[in-house]
Amino acid sequence: LDTLRHSVSTRPLSQGQRLYSEGEPFTHAIFPNSGVISLQKTEANGVSAEKASIGNEGFVGAALLFGGGAALSTSVVAVPGYASWLKIDALNEVTAREPLVMAAVNRYARALIFQLMESSACVNIHNAEQRLARWLLTTNDRCNHRAIPVTQATIAEVMSLRRATVNTILKGFSEGNLVQTGSGSIQILDRRGLMARSCGCYARI
To answer: Tell me: the pLDDT tens digits for 130-186?
Structure first.
């Protein structure tokens, strides 16, 4: 960490902020400390869907490990927080010099691939309520177990659900005292109860 101190800057993540567009060259690896970054595919007609999401377990820029210097997805901040920006040259230098750092980065890359595969299957196997419960639990982890600063519109967008569907499910969770919804935030009240409503993908991922 000492060797990287002069190559890292910490900045806020604002909801809706675009970090990289697909095909844009990486200048920094972005490590969220809190919040969620959504990796999205956007069609020419403007319709977008989430491929995967990244929180405090990983970083934007894992494509670099596979020999690519450009973003494979459009990365957008879904849940605000803050992150550390590390210059690509510094990342390349430290991974080349420190085998343990390279091993950790490679483990994350494998975990991201697993998340992609698991999430793809989850969409086809599990219902909207199970998936939303999983999303809330995962996002709560990434927000360091604080209230999640997110709107229902954002949840609907990243999960490719109708806003009315999200509203109905959250209303049921609220009536069951699993969550408390506020103006632009969601507080988990009963993690164990929410896990019982979630699919098994939460524990697996």
So the answer is: 999 999 999 999 998 889 999 999 999 889 899 999 999 999 999 999 999 988 999
Angle at 17 between CA 14 and CA 21, to 5 degrees: 155
The count of other CB atoms within 10 Å of the CB of residue 179 is 24
30-64 burial: b if 16+ Cβ within 10 Å, else e:
bbbebbbbbbbeeeeeeebebbbbbbbebbbbbbb
Q: Phi/psi at 81 (nearest 5 deg)? A: 180, -135
CB 20 within 8 A of CB 71: yes
Q: Are 65 and 175 in contact (CB under 8 A)?
A: no
What distance lies between CA 23 and its chain's CA centroid?
A: 20
Burial class (CB in 10 A: 0-12, 13-18, 19+), 15: middle
C-alpha 139: how far from chain center: 7
Of the candidates 63, 16, 19, 73, the residue with the CA atom closest to the CA atom of residue 43: 73
Mean pLDDT over the full length of the chain: 91
Q: What is the CA radius of gyration of the chain?
A: 17
| 70: helix, strand or coil | strand
Tokens of 178: 């699993």
Tokens of 98: 């420190």
Q: What is the CA 29 to chain-centroid distance, rounded? A: 15
Q: What is the pTM of this model?
A: 0.89
